[in-house]
């Protein structure tokens, strides 16, 4: 694990294809540095998860990735399609599937918002 | 493989381990401290930021206590343990809880007076104080809201030292007890994970460990020790004991403070670099209301927990801060250490009473924030709704349930409870593991129950007491 700038960059990314697609779809910034830094943070978080939790998330990613790959092959999966798929999962009343989009959204939101604001020392004090 | 030999092996360098090591070393004992996490310079990373999560937290601050609902928890994993990443709030154990624990768990030589004596000693060794001057705006919100409602509230003291300009420095273990331990001759091995304890019948004769070197490479360590103090915290301590063959009374009875949050939007900016130090104590110790870390990243996550559109509020994030209601839970959990897995399985079961208390806590928190002038409240409840007026708060009663509530905690305790009642406790009144002659636990695991307040003060006082008992040779 190397530290570069304000984020930790992990070599040999542990992210799976679909996880990378999800992060790419959720990041709103077009800045390549921000996008790669968010991806690196999510990658590090997934790699550092308790093993059993990581296994569960990876299993969901493989299943969802297989479905997404079929949609992509038919030309029906772009950025909006990935987000739509997450929204569908979020709306299901199945706790395990519902937690998947929440987890990925939380990680991306945390990282992107931290990376696109000044340090706490710079933050205006009321 | 490297062989090391020591008199006393202290595993873990947080509030329990650092106090143990410092007091043992000061008494002239040969002490080796091993810490799984890295040594990070006190000012090397920004508090509550991404680097801190990546470097100082276990699992990047992302671990679940499995159950319905699952409760996210975070704990430190670096030299100094969770004292390096927490808010530094300091609160002595309420006397009535000390009395209750003594009778329920049959704890010898334990009373509010004994605990007060050790707390005073710890306080004389740290700097425990309130903020000089006016509190920050995010903290004053709690005081203002509570006062308007006629509720008790207090500014908690923190383990902070302030210079003449009023700049505060948190007195973490890496700034206080650990340097003292090293000055007394203790040795500290960071990046060193203990895989298992080596036992000979009822005696521990050492530990097998693995040390990672910053430049790469892993070294196997065999450490021989006369005595072992396990201070890895409420999840890691029972997991290590399980991996080493101790199971009776170990890992059961886990307690935590389930916490539900609100992202509150105001019509004016708030500070975002610190954690509010005020607490609403009107309903304590069973329900405490306070404030959380509230940098932009945390504000964004808290807003998103509601599961309704929040982009407009996020754009106004400097006017938003995050607050919580934490309960003392009737439920309990388990920690199970599994062979070949680094992370233990942690479970927790909330009772129906707990769920009801969480809903009540959320509503009380909402009342206080609206009384303080909040204009929008985003609860950590999927589907919300967002509330703008006290007349709307009642909706949350029906919305808080096991599938919608987003819960978290940073206080885990009670996984190796102390006491002479072996049906309930994994360790004796002074932390010695039942059935072992020279193996002690000295961390949050020993607390028989969740204290309802930040447990750091209680952990440190108990650690100092238990070391005194050990040194007395009793």
Structure characterization notes:
The complex is a heterodimer of chains A (126) and B (474). Chain A is mainly α. Chain A has one domain. Chain A has a two-stranded antiparallel sheet with strand order 1-2. The longest helix of chain A is centred in the middle third of the chain and has 23 residues. Chain B has 474 residues and is α+β, with helices and mostly antiparallel strands. In chain B, strands 1, 2, 10, 11, 12, 13 and 24 form a 7-stranded mixed beta sheet that branches. In chain B, strands 3, 4, 15, 17, 18, 21 and 22 form a 7-stranded mixed beta sheet that branches. In chain B, helix 1 packs parallel to helix 12. Chain B is globular and about 65 Å long. The relative contact order of chain B is 0.19. The model of chain B has no long low-confidence stretch (mean pLDDT 95). Classes of the chains: A mainly alpha (126), B alpha+beta (474). Chains A and B meet through helix 2, helix 3 and helix 5 of A and helix 2 and helix 8 of B.
Condensed summary:
The complex is a heterodimer of chains A (126) and B (474). With 126 residues, chain A is mainly alpha-helical. Chain A has five helices and two strands; from the N terminus they run ββααααα.
Instruction: Indicate the structural class of chain B.
Output: alpha+beta
Average pLDDT taken over every residue of chain B: 95
Q: What gyration radius of chain A follows from the Cα positions, in whole Å?
A: 15 Å
Distance between the termini of chain A: 37 Å
Mean pLDDT of chain A: 82
What portion of residues of chain A belong to β-strands? under 5%
Q: What fraction of residues of chain B sit in β-strands?
A: 15-25%
Helix content of chain B: 25-40%
The end-to-end span of chain B amounts to: 36 Å
Largest sheet of chain B: 7 strands, mixed
Structural class computed from helices and strand pairing of chain A: mainly alpha
Order of helices and strands of chain A: EEHHHHH
The tally of beta strands of chain A, per DSSP, is 2
How does the major sheet of chain A shape up?
A: 2 strands, antiparallel
């Amino acid at each position: 694990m190397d530290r570069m700038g304000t984020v930790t960059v992990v070599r040999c990314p542990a992210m799976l294809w679909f996880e990378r697609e999800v992060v790419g779809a959720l990041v709103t910034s077009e800045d390549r540095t921000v996008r790669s830094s968010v991806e690196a943070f999510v990658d590090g978080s997934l790699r550092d998860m308790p093993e059993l939790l990581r296994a569960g998330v990876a299993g969901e990613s493989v299943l969802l990735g297989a479905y997404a790959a079929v949609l992509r092959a038919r030309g029906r999966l772009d950025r909006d399609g990935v987000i739509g798929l997450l929204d569908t999962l979020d709306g299901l009343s199945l706790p395990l599937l519902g937690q998947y989009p929440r987890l990925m959204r939380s990680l991306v939101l945390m990282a992107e918002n931290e990376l696109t604001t000044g340090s706490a020392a710079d933050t205006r004090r009321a | 493989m490297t062989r090391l030999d020591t008199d006393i092996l202290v595993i873990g360098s947080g509030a329990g381990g650092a106090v143990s090591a410092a007091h043992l070393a000061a008494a002239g004992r040969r002490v080796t401290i091993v810490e799984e996490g890295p040594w990070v310079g006190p000012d090397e990373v920004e508090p509550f930021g991404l680097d801190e999560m990546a470097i100082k937290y276990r699992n990047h601050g992302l671990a679940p206590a499995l159950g319905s609902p699952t409760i996210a928890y975070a704990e430190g994993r670096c030299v100094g343990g969770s004292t390096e990443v927490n808010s530094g709030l300091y609160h002595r154990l309420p006397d009535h809880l000390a009395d209750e624990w003594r009778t329920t768990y049959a704890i010898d030589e334990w009373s509010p007076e004994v605990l007060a004596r050790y707390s005073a000693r710890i306080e004389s060794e740290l700097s425990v104080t309130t903020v000089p001057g006016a509190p920050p705006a995010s903290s004053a919100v709690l005081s203002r809201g509570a006062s308007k409602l006629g509720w008790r509230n207090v500014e908690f003291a923190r383990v902070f030292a302030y210079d003449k300009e009023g700049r505060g420095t948190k007195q973490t273990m890496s700034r206080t007890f650990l340097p003292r331990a090293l000055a007394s001759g203790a040795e500290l091995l960071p990046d060193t994970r203990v895989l298992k304890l080596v036992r000979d019948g009822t005696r521990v004769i050492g530990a097998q460990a693995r040390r990672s070197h910053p430049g790469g490479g892993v070294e196997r360590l065999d450490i021989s020790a006369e005595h072992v103090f396990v201070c890895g915290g409420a999840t890691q301590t029972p997991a290590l004991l399980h991996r080493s063959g101790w199971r009776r009374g170990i890992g059961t009875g886990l307690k935590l403070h389930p916490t539900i949050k609100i992202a509150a939007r105001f019509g004016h900016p708030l500070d975002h670099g610190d954690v509010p130090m005020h607490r609403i104590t009107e309903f304590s110790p069973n329900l405490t209301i306070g404030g959380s870390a509230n940098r932009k990243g945390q504000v964004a996550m808290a807003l998103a927990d509601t599961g309704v559109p929040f982009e407009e509020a996020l754009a106004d994030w400097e006017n938003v801060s995050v607050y919580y209601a934490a309960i003392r839970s009737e439920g309990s959990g388990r920690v199970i250490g599994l062979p070949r897995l680094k992370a233990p399985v942690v479970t927790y079961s909330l009772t129906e009473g707990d769920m009801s208390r969480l809903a009540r806590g959320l509503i009380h928190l909402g009342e206080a924030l609206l009384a303080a002038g909040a204009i929008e409240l985003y609860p950590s409840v999927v589907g919300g709704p967002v509330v703008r007026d006290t007349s709307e708060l009642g909706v949350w009663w029906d919305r808080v349930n096991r599938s919608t509530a987003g819960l978290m905690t940073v206080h885990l305790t009670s996984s190796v409870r102390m006491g002479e009642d072996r049906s309930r406790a994994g360790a004796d009144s002074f932390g010695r593991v039942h059935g072992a002659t020279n193996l002690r636990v000295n961390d949050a695991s020993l607390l028989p129950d969740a204290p309802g307040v930040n447990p750091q003060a209680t952990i440190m006082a108990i650690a100092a007491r238990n070391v005194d008992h050990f040194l007395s040779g009793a």
